[in-house]
Amino acid sequence: MGSSARFNILGIGNAIVDVVARADEAFLSKHAMHKGAMTLVDAETAEAIYAAMPPGQESSGGSVANSCAVAAGLGARVAYLGKVAADQLGEVFGHDIRSAGVFFPSAPLTGVVPTARCLILVTPDGQRTMNTFLGACVAFGEDDVDEALVADAAVTYLEGYLFDPPAAQAAFRKAAAAAHAAGRLVALSLSDAFCVGRHRAAFRDLVSGHVDILFANQVEVCSLYEVNDFVSAAEAARQDVSLAALTRSEDGSVILYGDETVTVPAVPTQVVDTTGAGDAYAAGFLAGLTAKQPLAVCGRLGSIAAAEVISHYGARPEADLKKLAKAALG
Question: May I ask the CATH class of domain 7-14+62-108+138-329?
Answer without folding.
Answer: alpha beta
